[in-house]
Amino acid sequence: MNGFQPICGSCQTQPPVTDAFLVALEESANQRPSVYFNVGSVIFPAAPIGTQNSPQPIALHNGGSSALSISGLQITGPNASDFSLIGAGACEGQTVPVGGECSFEVGFVPSTTGPEAAVVSFTDNAPGNPQVLELIGAGEGPFALLSTTSINFGSQPENTSSLSHAFTITNTGNQALTLQSPSETGPDVAQFFLSGKDITCGPSLAAGATCQIGVVFSPKSIGTFHAQVNLVDNSGGISNSSQVIALTGTATAPSPVATVAPLALAFADTIVGSAAGTQTVTISNTGSTALNVTGIGMTGANASDFAIASSGGTSCPTGSSSLGVGASCTVGLLFAPAASDAPGTKTASVIITDNALGSPQTVTLTGTVTIPPTIQVSPASLNFGAQSVGIASPVQAITLLNTGSASLAVNSISVSGLNANNFAQSNNCPPSLRGGATCTVNVMFTPTAGAVTSRSASVSISDNAAGSPQTVALSGSATQPSISISPTSINFGGQLAGTSSSAQTVTITNNGAGALAFTSIAFSDAADFAFAANTCKGVNTPPGGTCTIQVTFGPACTNGAAARSGTLNLTDNSPGNTQSVALSGQATGDFCFAAVPSATVAPGGTAAYTVVANSATGYRGSVTIACAGAPTAATCTAPATVTVPSQFSVTVATAASSGASPLGRNGGRGREGEREIVREEGREGGRAPHGWSALSATLAVLFCAWLGLLSIWRFHSGWREQAMLAARLICAAALLLAVSAAMSSCGGGAASDPPAVSGTPAGSYTIMLTGTTAATTSNVALGLVVN
Known about the structure:
This protein is 9% helix and 46% strand. By secondary structure, it is mostly beta strands. The strands form 13 sheets. Strands 2, 3, 5, 7, 9 and 10 form a 6-stranded mixed sheet that branches. Strands 22, 23, 25, 27, 29 and 30 form a 6-stranded mixed sheet that branches. The longest helix is centred in the last third of the chain and has 28 residues, at 690-717. It is flat. The two termini are 74 Å apart.
């Protein structure tokens, strides 16, 4: 807003409050100054921490109608201390005339990483006083933040070592922190040492990363000792920046120190009447004299739900015992809620009484009691009835329902029993089934071949419900098909090589008690024998039913032997599993043509074919070649004769179109059709068709006859000669018009033939190549597509 400075109190808070406000403008009759700045805000480029940024100039302009008096300048805001005024006296305490200006600079030295902000506040006599100008900057570089600056180890017996006390270093900057190796200094540096196994800091710490350094207090004499850990890094972008962690510890006279770890144990959720896995607590004597343990007991509101158990060869005695310096033992603990316990969280404590400072030591125990899940399995049994050997039955389902509120742990689902390999299961049951949820186990029965008809097994479900594992009985009976084939052999006799015989039928009958199913039906010689039809494939033929396979003999066009043989092989679920039908035939003819791939060309292109002529009977003579069926304007070129065996080329040259009639060669009407179209178009252009010509002539004659009768009557009635002359002229004109229409309908120039059509029309064609010897005639089709 020109001449106004919006002031938003909530905008100055950190973080700024998201709100809205209204600015009301009221015209004033008084002349007043108005403040303008040369920039909307002052933005400093990011700079390393502690580095002076380039000062930024600020110019203040009085755009009002009276002099501007500036009584004060100051920087306020969350990071005000990092910004400074330079040369503010040029404006502060000064009067700026109308249209005049004053200027100064603002400096910025970041003290932390990340964005920084403040405002320059101007106190003056302009409306909206005070005016503010936003200052924005950012610090960059690493910054080391310590978790503590001091560690107090408390009391520690002389000649013993405390547990490691660790402090962390976090790089809160936006660049990597370079660390030198930590060192110890101070009057009692010999009483402390850095724990190498607890140091995770390396020479560089990435932005946002954390590492730790561990320190141990190991006094050699009685007294209070002080030292410090020194860290040298580049925190704040300052080389050799230093951080110090003060160390304090008090050494006492020799005594035992009882170190117990862990000080708290949490057990997994446990069902009433069962026990959670054993957990252990270790008691160590880290002091300088023997630790006398006088008792280990249980206390607390739910002490009866927990128990002390053996933890192996290092178990601590529950009565009095002694641990030498550096020795340790373990206490095994169980969570075993009683069957009568109510569900919920249970707590107790292990109390360890000894002669160490701080006795008794306490270990807190917690565990949660849950009600056991209950499972409903239905149905209790599955009977698959009679099922053919080798054929899978329809799926039958078992439903598992968790009828309790606790999660049901489904550990495993399996099939077991006498005929387990005859049954298979799949399921969608998760490892944990929530209360009220269900899952499904699908079972199939696929009996194997065997003498025993009855088959049985069971589905076993292992879980954490009472009565686990649950079982579902499975039963079924196996039936066996019996196959008969007629005929068991087929001789196709002689068949011209490269052609196919009529189909011969093989009938298969199921004479058994179970359904007959084929897993494979194939030829040993698929080059010479083929399926014409097959009703046995992919279906189960019931007892007493039949299916058929129709076989054809098409001796391949090769230079091999004339005699051909093979077998029709069947694999099924009947005893023996495999059957076969012997197939034989004789290739005949002096020669044969191998099949030729079709060709595609554009009009005007030439299709080239490679034709192979073989003989399965040993013929080595010549074959006369003829080509027929080429499309319009196309030419088939082939050798007049070839010698068997032979490979030769045939070409079909098409012609490009040089003109076209409305209907081409394949339009279905020929040239007469084209003439008819022309005649129809002539009619559409305005010439009268034959029917209209005849009608117009008839009307003209009738009109003249009427005029003749009328003239005779009028003659006797006294009509004037001029009227009769006009009627005769009209009659003559009508007759002339009728004759003209009749001549037009008879033909004229519009009915002349259209220009001849040239070029090969687009389409698909079959050109027949015929070979002939004295004893054999054979054909091969040449496919041609003209685009």
